[in-house]
Structure formats: structure tokens, C-alpha cells
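Shipment paperwork, digital attachment
Item: protein structure file
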Amino acid sequence: MQNPPPNQQGYGYNNQYGSPQQGGPLSTPPGGGPQDKSAIGMDGNLTAALGYPIGLIAIIEVIIEKQNRFARFHALQSLLLHVAWVVVFIVCAIFIGILTAISSVFGFLSLLFLLLLLVYLASLIFCAYKAYQGEMFKLPVVGDMADKFASK
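Attachment content:
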């Protein structure tokens, strides 16, 4: 068996758990984590969680956050989620408006707005919960976009 290079001594070689032998656990990776402070002075996970239901916090965080990548990612994902829902609501309103103009029988489709509103609120609460737990939870479409923007 080969010996490890000198600069990698102790990092996973002859160590059952693959962690450094001296110096304790590794520190937070560059870019900040959920427990690091954000630019507005709160913990990253709290800032990220509040950014979902309170879009103003997400806007402020996107503008001023330079260090904590976790908080910046969730702020961007929150804003993109809000924008996506606005687009869905507009498309739904146009669709329902056209169908209602054709026949008033389709007026019951306006209840679709209530259902969409409930799904919207549930998605905000779910994302806020995941962010508060410290998870880098990515939504299917907007999560990749937020990740790309947060990396810049």
C-alpha cells in the first residue's frame, strides 16, 4: 500500500471516519453556512426562513448579502418562487377570464384561485421550514437558477 502525500497526511488515510486526525472537525465551508451570521445580523437559517413568507427580507438579503451563500441562495430562491407564482396566477386569471367570457358556466373555475393560493402558502411554509432546518433544499426549476445566481 502506498503512503499518502505529505500534505494529505491524516485526511482519510488510516482514519476510520475520514476526518482530520488533529485540529478537530473541519470548519464551515467557504461562503458561510446556516449557523453563520447573515448581512442583516441574524443567523443564516433564520434569515433564510423569514425570506420566504416575508419577501422584503429576501429582497434586502439579495442586495446586501455578500458572505453567507446559504442565506443568499434561499433569498434568491424565495424571490424566484414568488415570481413563478405570480406568473402562474396571471396565466390562470387569463385562462379563467377567457373561459368565463365564453360561457358563465365556467365561472366555478374561479375556485381554482383559492386552491392555487393554498398551494402557494403551503410551498412558502415548506421552504421556510427546510431553510430553518439548515438544508440547502432546491426546488425543481427555480432552485437551479438560484444556485447559479448565488454562486456569482
